[in-house]
Amino acid sequence: MRLIGMLDSPYVRRVAVSLKILELPFQHEAVSVFRHFAQFSAINPVVKAPSFVTDDGTVLMDSTLILLHVEHIAGRSLMPPGTPAHTRALRRIGLALAACDKGVSIVYERGQRPEEKRHQPWMDRVGGQMLAALRDLESEVSDGWFAGDSVMQPEITTAIGWRFITQMLPDIVPVADFPRLAALSARAEQTQAFRETNFG
Ligand SMILES: N[C@@H](CCC(=O)N[C@@H](CS)C(=O)NCC(=O)O)C(=O)O
Which of 4, 46, 74, 97: disulfide with 22, CB 3.0–4.6 Å? Predict the structure, then answer.
């Protein structure tokens, strides 16, 4: 199994960390959607990170779909059992992914669009959506992990999203307003799976 994409992508990193936690061996290829476009295109012409090449050579994309596949292979889920816990987990992952999507949009606006073509009201709107997702997520975090003792997909995606957003957009996020997210992220980053799949 091959995981294609840079670990500064929160989507690539959530798959990498999940694979480590599920103890599934994989080959990581740090190919950038921008700097290595031609190399990426040769693997997946759609150039979406993460791309994931299965053992039979099928190219999957979208981190959530890739996670469904790897959990299927592992015969183990990183989602909590029981409908109420599962529903809460989906809500938290949804918030974390929405925050990442908005963060990525801003990073691309800043990195790809010439300054004179940027539309500040749009940037403000996207930034507001990102902060709204983070605020709702902050209100869901208690001390420690979301629930129980183990790192599951809600913690993985939340911690990775927080690290990505605060690293890439420090001017937009008032970090002091999110002490629980900061604590969850710090705790997650100390675990072996996170240390082995370092941001960047
Ligand atoms: N919903 C997708 C989002 C993936 C995504 O947007 N990845 C970015 C890298 S962070 C990408 O592929 N960018 C290149 C592009 O969209 O052209 C997922 O969860 O995998």
Answer: 74
